[in-house]
Amino acid sequence: MGKKTDKIEEVVKINKTKVFQNELSYIRDEEVLGLVKRALLVVNDKFFIVPASSTEKYHPKYALGAGGLVRHTKAAVYLAKEMLSLKQYSHLSITDKSLIIGALILHDTCKNGLNWESEYTIKKHPLLVKYLLKEESENLLWKNICRLVETHMGQWDGRGLLPQPKTELEKIVHLCDYFSSRKNIHIDVEYEVKNEKATDEQIDRIIELVTQMPDDILIRNNEVLQTLKDELEQLRSISYERTEEIIKIIGGLK
Predict the structure, then answer these.
(1) Tens of pLDDT, residues 155-171
(2) What's the rounded Cα separation, in Å, for the pair 151 and 171?
(3) What is the rounded CA–CA span in Å between residue 81 and residue 78?
(4) pTM for the complete prediction?
């Protein structure tokens, strides 16, 4: 991923664990907490600023726009916290409950690749989280967190690419992710990417789209491109979210 503007670095880089301060407070097993915090620190910055769905097809409105993936994650953790407070889950240990919360915090941190190299969701993304802390590959708690992440997609397993949730903990993680992604279920969570600006990666993408566009498409869509002219000349000063909209407009020209 390309270098970002100072404002995005300020918002994302400094506050990676602070973003999930409330959610981390639900983890009462200290070793699990330490692992999740360390993993968050190496999560790619883009996770903290992108929408939950790049196509806007698969998530509720509150999870769209800048920071939407974090809001989706917070919603999934909120559901888990509420579920785990029920008497029917009183048999689960502090460690079990901590593993669930930790897995949900991390479940989509590699959604577009370990280094966020893809424009869209990678089907095998649940299998990549273990590489956030490669040095912990033999740590049983880290293995358990990663297993819960690996099964969180449930029946949407990329046609057999991913393992299915079988244990009680795996099923809880899957259901929390499932319900937090339903379009008609609104969960009131707060997270906003403040002062976000267009990234170098977005700017490069727009330049690539325009320079590679065939002449006939350029001519046919000259009026549309002219309406974007002022914004295209000031990409560094417009918002991340608006730049995403411009990329979709230009990418969809025919």
Answers:
(1) 988 778 899 999 999 99
(2) 8
(3) 5
(4) 0.74
